[in-house]
Amino acid sequence: MKSVVVTAVFTPLPGKRTELIDAMSRGIEATHQEAGCQFYALHDAQDGTLVLLEKWDSSAALEAHSRGNAIRTLASDIAPLLAGPELVTVMTAIRAGDPVRGVVPDAVR
């Protein structure tokens, strides 16, 4: 099985960035407990958006996450704080170059 990497970009409403980060915490913590979650980490982008970087053991693990309680909690908590829909990109690795630096590594568990 191939692991899956996901980026999800969130644009907060003006003045709601800190509130959005706080609102995301409950869903992020719940996601960390899901089977197949290698990492699920929130980052602050220089353009004012928030970017969630995810890595899943497989497409099946990601699919289970997309139907689970954690993502429903996250979506519900953040909906009133977003300027628009999030931009989600799902990817699988193409190994190139250095075998270590050429892929997103698996998380240490």
Describe this structure in words.
- By secondary structure, the protein is an alpha+beta fold.
- The protein has a single domain (4-91), classed as Alpha-Beta Plaits.
- Helices cover 30% and strands 25% of the residues.
- The protein contains 3 helices and 4 strands.
- The protein has helices at residues 17-31, 59-66, 69-78, and strands at residues 4-10, 37-44, 50-56, 87-91.
- A 4-stranded antiparallel beta sheet has the order 2-3-1-4.
- Strand 2 and strand 3 (50-56) form a beta hairpin.
- Helix 1 (17-31) packs antiparallel against helix 3.
- The longest helix has 15 residues, at 17-31.
- The chain is globular, with a radius of gyration of 14 Å.
- The mean pLDDT is 92.
> Globular, elongated, flat, extended or rod-shaped: what is the shape?
globular
Radius of gyration using CA atoms only:
14 Å
Low-confidence parts lasting 5 or more residues at pLDDT below 50?
none
H/E series, N to C?
A: EHEEHHE
Query: Mind describing the biggest β-sheet?
Result: 4 strands, antiparallel
